[in-house]
Design brief:
Length: 248
Amino acid sequence: MTAPLPPASPTSPTSPTSPAALVRDHTIYSCVMGSRAFGLATEESDTDVRGVFVAPTPLFWLFDKPPTHVDGPAEEHFSWELERFCELALRANPNVLECLHSPLPLHTDSRGEELLSLRSAFLSRQVHTTFVGYAQSQRRKIDADVRQYGAPRWKHAMHLLRLLTSCLSLLRTGELTPDVGDARESLLAVKRGEVPWPEIENRLNRLVESASEAEPGSPLPPLPDRARVEDFLVRTRRESALAYEEST
């Protein structure tokens, strides 16, 4: 007789299917992101951790599905369930793609290694639309701050320059490198408010224009390799289901 499935939405955080337990017991990949991964950390910087967990397949057979993401359990810690992570990466979400390319991995099991081996499958010229689109939405917020307060939030301006620079490099080379390298000091000068806003504004405009020019001739493929990613997801779900059957 097959054992009953555990509840998918337990109230107790100690339950093996609670969000905290899913992250604790089923994480396949985690890394440091934010300023530390970008090479922009200072003494005041937090340590932002991002991860990917695989919810056991039997949980998807219940009415109450496992979460698509978990905020926590520790502060500055955020994790995606594998399927949601892959969906976002295939859409060229900047935060998710940079997570895959973090220079500061914390934990990787065999499935995490395979996920990392798929990094090129997620990359496509769609990054131009998503990176620049995100940057433009943030730019509108910065412009509003300039109109209201006479200056932008300098940290936000710094990260906007970093993101657009990363996008341009990715479109030109086909490789995503989160660490800013030699640009560290010039970007931190922006964060400290040492660079006039008109100069930053000009740099942002030039980066957007250069990214648009680089997109048509980019070595990146027009679309990501969805079939390759889906094959990995299906195999992972199947292995999880088989493990459950063998344990009951």
